[in-house]
């Protein structure tokens, strides 16, 4: 099997390309089906000892902000900082849940030793930097 990001075609065996194409088709089919699962992900974050609670989508969009009654005692700057912290925590939580979902699904589809989602994402970023103008 060709597992690395820089495969050597001389090392390929009969059937490797067919197996990899089949796996790629399964990954694409999962990606189409996973849209609903990803859309259902909710990240949660809080700050200020629970004064501010936020929920976000997997895309990082804020769905809900809840201020506890005692939040009104904080000055506006503190409240704003707590809100930003809670949003960041909720977004991090949603991103972690999305990554876990993708990693779990790909772990079932891809063979042992295949690059994980983080490796593929970093390689894509590296490749895209080649097209970024200075």
Question: Any overview of this molecule?
Answer:
With 134 residues, the chain is α+β, with helices and mostly antiparallel strands. It has one domain: Ybab, Chain: A (2-Layer Sandwich). The protein is built from three helices and three strands. The chain has a three-stranded antiparallel sheet. A hairpin with a 4-residue loop joins strand 1 and strand 2. Helix 1 runs antiparallel to helix 2. The longest helix has 34 residues. The radius of gyration is 21 Å and the shape is elongated. The two termini are 38 Å apart. This is DNA-binding protein YbaB. Keywords: DNA-binding. Pfam families: YbaB_DNA_bd. One of its GO terms (molecular function) is DNA binding.
Largest sheet: 3 strands, antiparallel
Rg for CA atoms: 21 Å
Q: Helix- and strand-based class? A: alpha+beta
Helix content: 40-55%
Question: What percent strand?
Answer: 5-15%
Report strand order across the widest sheet.
1-2-3
Shape: elongated
Say what the CATH topology is.
Ybab, Chain: A
Class, according to the CATH hierarchy?
Answer: Alpha Beta
- Written as H for each helix and E for each strand, in order along the chain, the element string is HEEEHH
N/C terminus separation? 38 Å
Question: What is the residue-averaged pLDDT?
Answer: 81
Write the CATH architecture name.
Answer: 2-Layer Sandwich
User: How many distinct domains?
Assistant: 1
Low-confidence stretches: 1-6
Q: Helical segment tally?
A: 3
- The name of the CATH superfamily reads Nucleoid-associated protein YbaB-like domain
Question: How many beta-strand segments?
Answer: 3
């Amino acid at each position: 099997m060709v597992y690395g990001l820089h495969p050597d075609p001389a090392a390929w065996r009969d059937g490797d390309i067919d197996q990899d194409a089949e796996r790629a088709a399964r990954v694409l089919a999962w990606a189409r089906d996973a849209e609903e699962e990803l859309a259902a992900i909710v990240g949660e974050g809080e700050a200020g000892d629970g004064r501010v609670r936020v929920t976000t989508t997997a895309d990082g969009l804020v769905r809900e902000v809840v201020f506890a009654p005692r939040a009104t005692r904080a000055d506006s700057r503190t409240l704003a900082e707590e809100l930003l912290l809670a949003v960041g925590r909720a977004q991090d939580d949603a991103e972690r849940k999305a990554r876990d979902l993708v990693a779990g699904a790909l772990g079932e589809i891809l063979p042992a030793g295949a690059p994980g989602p983080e490796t593929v994402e970093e390689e894509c970023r590296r490749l895209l930097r080649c097209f970024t103008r200075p």
